[in-house]
Structure formats: C-alpha cells, structure tokens
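*** Query protein ***
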Amino acid sequence: MNPHAPSLRGSLPPEGADRPWGGPAAGRSASVAVIGAGNMGGAMVERLCAQGWPVVVCDIAPQRQQQALAAGAQLADMPEAAAQVLTASGALIVCVVDAAQSHEVLFGPRGAASAMQAGQAVVLCPTIAPNDTEALAAALAQRGIGCIDAPMSGGPARARDGSMSLMLAAAPDLLQRHADLLQTMSSRRFTISERAGDGARTKLVNNLLAGINLVGAAEVMALAERLGLDLPTTLDVIEQSSGQSWIGSDRMRRAIGGDFEPRAHVTLLEKDTRLAVQAAQAVGFDGPLGARAAEAFAQAHAAGLADRDDAALLLWLRGQRR
C-alpha cells in the first residue's frame, strides 16, 4: 500500500443523484478541498455540498468530520490527501484559526502544498497578519500555486446560506478562474486589490471595529443593569436608535438570555484585535479605542472566559466568572 496515497472516507454518489451532489452545480469539473471545518468552515462545507460541489474535508475533530460526512463531503485524513484528489483546476480552502495553523496545513509534514499542482489555487480565509498572508502567497507562488487572500465575515449562518462577506485580494485572472466557487461561497464579495495581504488588512480593520462595538455594547448593557434598567427593553431602544450595531445586538441578545455557548470564542476577537493593533503600530497609528478593546478581550480571557462565546464580555463586565 502506498503510504502517500489519499485516505478518503465517503464517496461520490452516482451521476444525477439527488442533493447534495445533484444540486444546481452538479457537473462542474472543479473540485474543492476544505481544510478546517469548524464553525465557519463547516458552514461553508454545507453550503458547497448543497450547491452540488464535490467537496473533500480535512479536520482533526471527530465531530466536525461527522458533520462534513452528513453534509455530503468526503473525508481526508491529512491536508496532503485532500489536495491529492483535487482536479487540475481545483481549489483548496484554508479555514483554520491562525497563521501558524495555516502554515502547518500548507507546508508542514503531509501539508497540502506538497500535493498541489501548478495552476491550482489556495483560498486563504483565516484572519491573520498581512505579512503572514504575503509570506504564504509568496511560498505558494514559488510552486506555481495561486493564492486568493479571502478573509470572511458574517458568522456561520451567513456562511451556510452564502451571504457572508468575502474580502478578496488576488490577480484578476485568478479571481475569474474561480469565480463560480467564490460566487457560491458568497453573494457579498468585495475585490480589494491585486495585492495579497490587502484582504487581511481590510479584515483587521473590520474586526477591530467589531471588537470596539462589542466591548462598547457589553459596557453599556452592564451599566444599564447597574442603573436598574430592564436589559431587553434597553436593547430594544438601542437597536432602533443611534447606538445600534449588528454585533452588539447579536451578542447581547444571547447574553441577556444567558446563552454563552461558543459560536465565536473570546479568543478569536482577542487575536483579531491584537493583530489589528499591531498593524496600526507598524504604520505609526495610535488610535484611542483599538488598544483598549484588545485589552478588554485579553482581560476576559485571563478571567477564565476564553472558551466561552464572546458575548461573555457581559459576564466579565458584571464581574462574574464561570
């Protein structure tokens, strides 16, 4: 047995089978590999399978593997194995947590890049520092592999229905070659530039504002509670007034109901706000709020809330602990 042969579970249904393989995109020649099927990656897998794309998934978590199989995907045991089954025009979507994981799944032992062909592409979705995106893109380019810098935003529900935002930075011809895939993934695509790293820069700017808004929303709800106000009513007012923000409404509604099951862990915006502040420092910009928001997430982490949903900022501001 060839130790480097792809190890797959799940199989392609026969030609013309019902969904997920017989959906609107059935018959497309391009295949997709997804490395990392967590909250966002798993939702993308569901979307792609439902739209008829043949998908192979690599994820180390058994629960995520079972969810991918249930969606209609095949499983690969290593990133290299996932890449080996891509067609010549296929794309590999990286949807892991950070730069270190991105480098590992692409260039580590049994990494995907070793099995990819010139002319294929990597769609790089994690929120990472721009210089890390540039380094990964350059290393892929040396192998003739395209890199689409494609951070995403909007949460699992929007990834699942194809309405999440994608911030795209890549050469126009590369974007055109994978237009069908990108359109399936997202109806809200923003072409930022041709320079790898500009998608990452845009995502950090967005997520810094999201972090600032969330810290602000949690602060005012904690204050409202201290003032003796009814929290649902207060949030009703905010949602119809000048203080409204999407992330504030989404997270504080859950927090008021005592729902802190993680959709987005505290550690994610902790990482993203830290990276955004570092990017600001690199260009000599020192704003009044970004560093304070990053500090709030770091303190919530230190207070024992790292594994909770980031709505748990309200718990931290109340002075509560797990």
